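Lab channel / #folding
Pinned by the channel admin:
"Please post every new chain as: sequence first, then the C-alpha cells as a reply. Keep commentary short and put observations after the output so the thread stays searchable."

First post following the new format, from NK:
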Amino acid sequence: MTMENDATPPAAAPVVARAEPYEVAVKAGRTYWWCSCGLSTKQPFCDGTHKGTGLSPQAWKAEEDGTVWFCGCKQTADGPMCDGSHERL
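Reply from TO:
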C-alpha cells in the first residue's frame, strides 16, 4: 500500500495589478519587496496577501538613489523590473 505524496500545489498564476509599470523613487541600500502575485493592496510592494498562492515576493536592493520602474502586470521575465510584457497583454 502506498500513500499519496503531500506535495505542495503548483503556484497560482499572478494577477495583473495594472497594465503598466510603477514608477518608484528608490534610496541606495534599501531593500524593496516586489509583489509577484498581483494581489497586494500596496502595489508594487508586498503586503503578505500572497500567502497560500504558492507565489512569493521578490527582494530587490537599490544600488543608488534614483527612479526605477517596477513591473505592474506581474508577467515580466526580468522581475521585479518592467521588461515591457504589459504591451503584450
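NK: DSSP finds no helices and four strands in the chain.
TO: also worth noting, The radius of gyration is 15 Å.
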